[in-house]
Amino acid sequence: MKDTELCRSLEIEITILDTWIEHRWLVPEERDGARQFHDSDLARARLIQDLIGPMGVNEDGVDVAMQLLDQIHGLRGRLGLLMQAIRSQDEEVQRRILALIDEEH
Fold first, then answer.
1. Which InterPro entries match (predicted)?
2. 3-class DSSP state for residue 11?
């Protein structure tokens, strides 16, 4: 979706969207010289709205929240890759890995 569509969905001015992009809270895709947003960007923007609005979080707090969200997202991706690597091993190796994990709990 284009930036105007995103703004309409969120009921915000383009200047607000520009500020969020400057802070890198949203990072749109650039296509043919125009910003393009995905459903995940809309969900992220709604979170930003909730943080700033009803929750009363200041800009520094939103920075921290967005950085933590990005870290969690990155960790989930890495964990998925780790799980694929474990599943690609023979059953005995898988059992040993899971046993080591169980020991740590």
1. DNA-bd_dom_put_sf
2. coil
Helix (H) or strand (E) holding 29: strand 29-31
Q: What is the pTM of this model?
A: 0.78
* pLDDT of 103: 84
Chain centre to alpha carbon of residue 8: 22
Which helix or strand (DSSP H or E) is residue 31 part of?
strand 29-31
DSSP character at residue 28:
P
| CATH number for the domain harbouring residue 40 | 1.10.1660
27 φψ region: left (φ > 0), alpha (ψ -120 to 50), beta (else): beta
The tokens of 34 are what? 């125009």
Give the number of domains in the chain. 1
Residue-wise pLDDT for 8-40, tens only, equals: 999 999 999 999 999 999 999 998 889 999 999
